[in-house]
Write a structure and sequence with these properties.
The protein is mainly alpha-helical. It is built from seven helices and no strands. Helix 4 runs antiparallel to helix 5. The protein is flat. The model has no long low-confidence stretch (mean pLDDT about 90).
């Protein structure tokens, strides 16, 4: 009976932590949205609200880490329960880093504000498509975590290759444009850094998806092939 009571307490505490993680994820998504939207709006200055959000996100990370630490001390979880707690700590670390990338995008967006469209490739199609891909990956990864859906997590991981391909294509297009018109060098470099931050957001979303599979399956699939990951998810 005591074990049943303890198990229920653990489940309740982890459910509260999961809710906090998803709230943190929503805040990070808002940071990304603000940063990307500013690229198409020269009147917007996203840095101040993003910095405000960053403070909130950082405090959330500290609080969730504290809650996880308390669970470990009080409940002394083992096996899958301990794996769940430790994985949550990794997830919030990746979310905090996504917020850092959003801040980098905002910082790069500011110099581009007011530049004529032909000199601001970061506000064009070079960035829009990959940003939507990365944001969709993050949303899907958080949804997979909320439902502990390993099949959905595997599909998030599969999308990362396409983001990498698109980033390489963007890099080539921007470099070609810069060589053709040296006046675009400064704006192009900002665009390249923005694209790299977006690509890293995709990487962090992939990490979160991998953690979901690790929680459910108990296997570290970070260096597995996509086919192996999909087989493991469906097993």
């Amino acid at each position: 009976m005591q074990n049943d009571h303890t198990s229920k307490q653990f489940d309740n505490e982890m459910e509260a932590i999961r809710g906090a993680v998803l709230t943190m994820g929503g805040m990070v998504e808002r940071q990304i949205e603000r940063a990307i939207d500013a690229l198409g709006n020269s009147d917007a200055d996203p840095l101040a609200p993003i910095l405000d959000d960053e403070r909130i996100v950082n405090n959330m990370q500290i609080e969730i880490d504290r809650q996880c630490g308390n669970v470990i001390v009080r409940r002394q979880p083992a096996a899958i329960d301990l794996r769940i707690v430790m994985t949550v700590i990794q997830i919030v670390n990746d979310l905090e880093r996504v917020g850092d990338e959003a801040k980098k995008i905002a910082l790069r967006a500011r110099p581009l504000a007011g530049i004529e469209e032909q000199f601001a490739p970061a506000r064009g199609k070079e960035i829009g498509y990959i940003s939507e891909m990365a944001r969709a990956m993050l949303r899907a990864a958080l949804d997979a975590y909320a439902r502990l859906d390993v099949v959905a997590a595997a599909e998030v991981i599969a999308r990362d290759e396409q983001v990498d391909i698109e980033f390489a294509a963007i890099t080539r297009r921007l470099m070609d444009g810069m060589m053709a018109d040296p006046r675009t060098i400064s704006a192009t470099l900002d665009a390249l850094f923005i694209a790299k931050s977006i690509e890293r957001i995709g990487d962090h979303a992939t990490n979160i998806a991998e953690y979901v599979i690790h929680i459910v399956k108990g296997k570290d699939i970070r260096h597995a092939s996509l086919d192996e990951i999909r087989r493991e998810a469906k097993a």
